[in-house]
């Protein structure tokens, strides 16, 4: 069974690659080496660094995080709304994986050091994909241009390696995937999988297991993941930027992402016909 990309809006800057997670073969792609701004996707590199330090003993999972005043942010997440914000390192990482928590991200980034986290991508051999900066309430011209950036090719390979246990160590890779298993945002590629957004840690609809991370800002939508089913497993990255457009193109972008998700669902489950979708 093949993976066929839908028609993609030419006004959008796309970077897409879908890999067979077992062989690494390319199943589909569209301008996979184009670099996009990737919003929250770079938080995966932070989770990798935290997992590495937990495995090495440099960090204690029960250690309470500190939140410097200059890095307090709101918006995405739950921690900024919680009464007790001094959660443990491990729980802070879970918040990042589950709700892309901005405040927990900044606390962990300050703890690990932004330079150390910036180095994770290059250490994995990625030249055009990285976390670049703290999350900011406002990104002024004097600040780094984006919180993270990347290409479809490198982000799909990142998820393939995580699924194979090849990032840092099998234990560290598994820890990162466990945090990503709690991701509640199934609105992008994962929308078509019909999973329970709040409870898909174990195999759920049609035997699918999803580990993924999304990123959303006003001009971008990105979804990267590792998806397994009874028939196959894939690693995917779908990035869309429309910063240079005069129009808000989220509608055609989401339509395309949902169509890609339906292709992935059919591929990993072996259920190609629409009338089998709800079987």
TrEMBL record:
The keyword Glycosyltransferase does not apply. Keywords: Hydrolase. One of its GO terms (molecular function) is hydrolase activity. SUPFAM superfamilies: beta-lactamase/transpeptidase-like (SSF56601). It holds the Pfam family Beta-lactamase2. Residues 16-239 form the Beta-lactamase class A catalytic domain. PANTHER family: BETA-LACTAMASE, BETA-LACTAMASE-TYPE TRANSPEPTIDASE FOLD CONTAINING PROTEIN. This is Serine hydrolase. It comes from Microbacterium candidum.
